């Protein structure tokens, strides 16, 4: 079990991740985002490194997407 899976195993005891929507800022290679999506969450990973984002995108699964961006200037329309 990966470190991300271990952490999420603990978190999932306190949070209902299934059908949740999660924004993972600084998603890196996507390990946490992918682990969250395996638990049923819809995840958007934001990463400032194009190399890391491309690495994460190679492991895409349903309910998980990765975008290039930074936390201070998120690539979403304001509402």
Automatic annotation (TrEMBL):
<protein>
    <recommendedName>
        <fullName>Methyltransferase domain-containing protein</fullName>
    </recommendedName>
</protein>
<dbReference type="InterPro" id="IPR029063">
    <property type="entry name" value="SAM-dependent_MTases_sf"/>
</dbReference>
<dbReference type="Pfam" id="PF13649">
    <property type="entry name" value="Methyltransf_25"/>
</dbReference>
<dbReference type="InterPro" id="IPR041698">
    <property type="entry name" value="Methyltransf_25"/>
</dbReference>
<feature type="domain" description="Methyltransferase">
    <location>
        <begin position="22"/>
        <end position="78"/>
    </location>
</feature>
């Amino acid at each position: 079990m990966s470190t991300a899976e271990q952490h999420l195993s603990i978190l999932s005891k306190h949070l209902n991740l299934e059908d949740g929507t999660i924004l993972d800022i600084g998603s890196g290679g996507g390990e946490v985002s992918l682990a969250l999506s395996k638990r049923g969450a819809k995840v958007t990973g934001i990463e400032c490194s194009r190399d890391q984002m491309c690495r994460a995108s190679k492991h895409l699964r349903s309910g998980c997407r990765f975008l290039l961006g930074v936390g201070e200037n998120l690539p979403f329309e304001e509402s």
